[in-house]
Fold this sequence. Notes:
Blueprint: H1 2-20, E1 25-28, H2 30-36, H3 38-75, H4 81-134, E2 139-142, E3 154-156, H5 158-164
Parallel strand pairs: 1-2, 1-3
Amino acid sequence: xxxxxxTLVIAGFTIIASSAGAQKLAHINLDSLLRSMPxxxxxxxxxxxxxxxxxxxxxxxxxxYQEKVQDYQAHQSTYTxxxxxxxxxxxxxxxxxxxxxxxxxxxxxxxxxxxxTKPIITKAKSAVTSVAKEHHxxxxxxxxxxxxxxxxxSDDIYDMVAxxxxxxxxxxxx
Length: 174
C-alpha cells in the first residue's frame, strides 16, 4: 500500500513538473502587422519622396553627361588633340561621379528608410512583447520570415497585437 501511494505521489509530481515546463507558443505575421499600421503608409510616402529626390538628381546628372557626350561627338573633328583629351577626361570624370553618386544614393536611401521604419518596427515588437507577456507565451515566431516550417499548438496573436496597437481593422492585410 505504501508503495502504491508513493508511486502515485511520484507520478503526480512528475505530471505537475512536466506541465509546469510546457512551453506556450504563438506566431504572428509581422510583415502583415507592419503593413496594417498607419505609420507604415506615412513612412512609405516619405521614403518614396526621398527616393524621387535622389532619382531626380541622378537624371539631371545623366542629362548633363549626355549633353557633354553629344557636344563632344558633334565637335570632335574641330578640336585639337589637347582639347579632345581634356573633353574626354571631363566626360570620363563625370561618368565616374555619376556612378559614385548612384552608389552613395543607394546607401543613403537604405539608411533613410531604416531610420524612418525603425520606430515603427520597435512599436510593433513592443506590442508583440506586451501581448506575449499578458498571455504567458514563452515564444512568438514571426511567420512572415518563413523561418517556421512547421507549427503545432501555436496561437496566432495577430488580432491581439493589432488591438494593442489600436488598429481599427484587426483583419490581416495581405
